[in-house]
Amino acid sequence: MRFDNLYLAGVASWLPERMDTEQAVKEGLMDAAVREVSGIEAVPVAGTVPAPDMAVTAAREAIRRSGHGPEDFAALYHSNSHFQGPDGWSPQHYVLRKALDRPISAVEVRQGCLGMLTSLELAAHRLACDRSRPAVLLTGADNFGTPLADRWKDAGLFLLADGAAAAVVSARGGFARLLASASLSDPQMEELNRGGEVLFPPPMTVGRPLDLEGRRQYWREQWAAGTVPPMGDLGRLVGDVASRALAEAGLTMEEIDRVVHMGFSRIPLWDTFLAPLDIDEERGIWDFARRTGHVGTADFVAGLEHLCATEQLVEGDHVMLIGAAPGAEVCCVIAQIVHPMP
């Protein structure tokens, strides 16, 4: 999908105080060998700060930086991958009330770690149809410090980190011009993420905690017993989606100055993103990600903000934002920096 006069007008993230993984090992929270292999040095830990409140903080700053007033906004898309508050409650309208206080549509986007990139595509569609109000607010936040999650052990691909991010998509102008995006899924891989889990009753309703690594282990055991698991190549999907987005943007990979990827641990990062894109750690954001881990839905905006704030992206540079979610689905967005971030 090629974008027409669409921009990021303001972005912001909120990351709490980081906990060193070395300290986590000393406290018996994670294994020393896992820490060594992961390459992750620290992750933000929010304590008891509710995820929607983090989103509000990031949203207010992104709005301030964007130059847009509340009356400019047509919608809010809030994404998350962990529990936000009371069951049956609407966190997106809480964020809307605290950040904009306008009677506009607020939607929760449940697309796992891809939530904010998928929300950006939804915002583009909305603004393409109606530009009477030229802005859409995107927010994302997670706090994994609940009894149903263990940030240090639940996922072999990454360490779960707390934080929030927000972005203003604008048809009026901004610091980054959105050029194109592409999304593809491989639904054959759905079962890989489900493992041996039952669908009803949902595990969390009976107090069963999140265990992504346990689901991966389930398929290892099935394979050892002679049952071939559903096959899929997430790295190939990443490469295909990137190629499609680049073609829409009229660019080659050589013209992409930096890639903002998910905060995976070092080996999965290489296998899933760096090798398929044929880039090294320096062209990605490993120096940032190794100090943040995987911040739920906020990885992309937090990484982009970091590159702009530290002047690692400057006027004229092209940046690729790319990530994956269970399903499996991959989304890629390409933008060009047109002036310094507010």
Automatic annotation (TrEMBL):
<feature type="domain" description="Beta-ketoacyl-[acyl-carrier-protein] synthase III C-terminal">
    <location>
        <begin position="246"/>
        <end position="336"/>
    </location>
</feature>
<dbReference type="InterPro" id="IPR013751">
    <property type="entry name" value="ACP_syn_III_N"/>
</dbReference>
<keyword id="KW-0012">Acyltransferase</keyword>
<protein>
    <submittedName>
        <fullName>Ketoacyl-ACP synthase III family protein</fullName>
    </submittedName>
</protein>
<keyword id="KW-0963">Cytoplasm</keyword>
<feature type="domain" description="Beta-ketoacyl-[acyl-carrier-protein] synthase III N-terminal">
    <location>
        <begin position="108"/>
        <end position="185"/>
    </location>
</feature>
<dbReference type="InterPro" id="IPR016039">
    <property type="entry name" value="Thiolase-like"/>
</dbReference>
<dbReference type="Pfam" id="PF08541">
    <property type="entry name" value="ACP_syn_III_C"/>
</dbReference>
<keyword id="KW-0808">Transferase</keyword>
<dbReference type="InterPro" id="IPR013747">
    <property type="entry name" value="ACP_syn_III_C"/>
</dbReference>
<dbReference type="Pfam" id="PF08545">
    <property type="entry name" value="ACP_syn_III"/>
</dbReference>
